[in-house]
């Protein structure tokens, strides 16, 4: 054990009594691991970095579990780059299947973006060279193998990528990696009944609502603890879940000050008591620990289909934070960086992206979820009354408007009969008769079309602003929508102005039953062989068609 870890552990044990009762009971029931801190990987003297995707073993609850990682068994290092300095990354695939590495959040040319075209076969390698030219930010990298992205991320392939620039370097923000500048990668996992495998299935249920787990990992550990400097603490937060949205808060309700979103620092800090995070989103927050009191970072229950099952039906601690006697040196500036004003949108090229799910997939996915998890999965809806209720209430939306149909009419079944049906008949039977074969793999679509890697949907002009409207109208599901090759500005989110902490640089926008508008501009080129992607970052939606490619010339 390193000396720093020993000091942290000693402080943690001494401060544990200050945590809420339910946190202390969890700590007593299971020995708390120390928070794993990813290695900070920087280019060598030749500007080279080596990244190897490989299989390994992780241990959870005393069981060895096969996992995948970069340069290790699980997750990966945090790659740190400098704005304006070229880097060469050598990627080796030691996995039993093809993969890609996508630099999520980086504004780089299509040929190095790492989309689904950039396959690296087993025991093969790929070398990419690029020069990051964007503001300081916390980005990440992960696989983008079409049809297998959800599986490969669930196995553990993900890592942070940090970009530094001179402007942010002048601010007195916490900068001591692993001490007052802490990475927090949050992912839910579902293990097999014997706890020895990650139980991932891309089936009709997950294609509809996404794959979700019953265990939360923080940097790959279950409810770890960390000792931190006393003062301002910087948390670099990543929602690395396949499909689960989070709502982060502190157990004692001390405020969080958001200083950065996906693409970089905000103009000024934004004080929040709760921070909702979509899959794939990053935020940087500062928390004041100068009182020396221990507290938890926790996630609160959210209204999202399938995501209300135990233990996520109540506040769930994800990280125990124990302030040390050592004083931190960072501060919370009143002013961060200059974020340019949003230019006028009159006369800009406009694009419309309509997100839809095949009604058959929607219907069968809901039936499968009810069969497996019961009414607790319906986000608070009493399914016994489903025949008389607006199905849209399950996710806070009017599902009855979907494609102009009553949900009860979908697939020719009477939804109202559900209360009297045997659960065993719900997923694969239609009133006792076998359902016809249905291929759900193209069941999610954009503008009525499932993803076609060989046919980009449109071409954007390099360096020119465009206004994109992404519509989830008539669809009951949450869609965290991600665009490659750019950091955009949100004009409206679900029909409303963006919240203050979402008004900076972003690469994911929330779409849920309404329209969201973003202002995009692409500074690099992407040809048809290396098209950029735009897709739902609920990974099972992406893997089953809710993605399109586009070029930039």
Automatic annotation (TrEMBL):
It comes from the Bacteria. Residues 62-167, 440-552 form the Plastocyanin-like domain. Pfam families: Cu-oxidase_2, Cu-oxidase_3, TAT_signal. It is an enzyme of class 1 (oxidoreductase). InterPro entries: Cu-oxidase-like_N, Cu-oxidase_C, Cu-oxidase_fam, Cu_oxidase_Cu_BS, Cupredoxin, TAT_signal, TAT_signal_bac_arc. Its EC number is 1.16.3.4. It catalyses: 4 Cu(+) + O2 + 4 H(+) = 4 Cu(2+) + 2 H2O. PANTHER family: BILIRUBIN OXIDASE (PTHR48267:SF1), CUPREDOXIN SUPERFAMILY PROTEIN (PTHR48267). Monomer. This is Multicopper oxidase CueO. The lineage of its organism: Bacteria, Pseudomonadati, Pseudomonadota, Gammaproteobacteria, Enterobacterales.
């Amino acid at each position: 054990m390193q000396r720093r870890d020993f000091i942290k552990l000693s402080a943690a044990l001494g401060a544990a009594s200050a945590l809420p009762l339910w946190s202390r009971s969890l700590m007593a029931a299971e020995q708390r691991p120390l928070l794993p801190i990813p290695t900070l990987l920087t280019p060598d003297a030749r500007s080279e970095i080596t990244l190897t995707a490989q299989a390994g073993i992780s241990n959870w609850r005393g069981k060895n579990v096969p996992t995948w990682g970069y340069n290790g068994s699980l997750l990966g290092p945090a790659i740190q780059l400098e704005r304006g300095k070229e880097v060469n990354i050598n990627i080796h695939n030691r996995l039993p299947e093809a993969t890609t590495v996508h630099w999520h959040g980086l504004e780089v040319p299509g040929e190095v973006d790492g989309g689904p075209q950039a396959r690296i076969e087993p025991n093969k390698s790929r070398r990419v060279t690029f020069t990051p030219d964007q503001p300081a930010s916390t980005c990440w990298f992960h696989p983008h193998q079409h049809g297998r992205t959800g599986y490969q991320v669930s196995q553990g392939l993900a890592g942070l990528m940090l970009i530094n620039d001179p402007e942010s370097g002048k601010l007195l923000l916490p900068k001591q990696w692993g001490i007052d500048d802490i990475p927090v990668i949050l992912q839910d996992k579902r293990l097999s009944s014997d706890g020895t495998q990650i139980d991932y299935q891309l089936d009709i249920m997950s294609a509809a609502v996404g794959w979700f787990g019953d265990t939360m990992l923080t940097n790959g550990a279950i409810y770890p603890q960390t000792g931190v400097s006393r003062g301002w603490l910087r948390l670099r937060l990543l929602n690395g879940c396949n499909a689960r949205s989070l709502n982060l808060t502190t157990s004692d309700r001390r405020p969080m000050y958001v200083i950065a979103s996906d693409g970089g620092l905000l103009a000024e800090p934004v004080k929040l008591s709760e921070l909702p995070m979509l899959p794939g989103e990053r935020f940087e927050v500062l928390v004041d620990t100068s009182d020396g009191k221990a507290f938890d970072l926790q996630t609160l229950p959210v209204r999202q289909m399938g995501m209300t099952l135990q233990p996520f039906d109540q506040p769930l601690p994800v990280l125990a934070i124990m302030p040390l006697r050592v004083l931190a040196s960072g501060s919370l500036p009143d002013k961060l960086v200059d974020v340019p004003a949003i230019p006028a949108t009159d006369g800009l090229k406009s694009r419309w992206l309509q997100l839809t799910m095949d009604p058959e997939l929607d219907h069968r996915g809901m039936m499968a979820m009810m069969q497996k998890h019961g009414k607790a999965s319906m986000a608070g809806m009493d399914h016994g009354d489903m025949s008389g209720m607006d199905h849209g209430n399950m996710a806070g939306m009017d599902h009855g408007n979907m494609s102009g149909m009553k949900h009860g009419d979908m697939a020719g079944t009477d939804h109202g009969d559900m209360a009297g049906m045997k659960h065993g008949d719900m997923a694969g039977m239609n009133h006792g008769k076998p359902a016809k074969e249905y291929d759900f793999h193209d069941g999610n679509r954009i503008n009525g079309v499932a993803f076609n890697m060989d046919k980009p949907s449109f071409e954007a002009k390099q360096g020119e602003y465009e206004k994109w409207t992404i519509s989830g109208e008539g669809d009951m599901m949450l869609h965290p929508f991600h665009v490659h090759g750019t950091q955009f500005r949100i004009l409206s989110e679900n029909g409303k102005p963006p919240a203050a902490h979402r008004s900076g640089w972003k690469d994911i926008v929330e779409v849920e039953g309404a329209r969201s508008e973003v202002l995009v501009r692409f500074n690099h080129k992407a040809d048809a062989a290396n098209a950029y992607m735009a897709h739902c970052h609920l990974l099972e939606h992406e893997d089953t068609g809710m993605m399109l490619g586009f070029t930039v010339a």
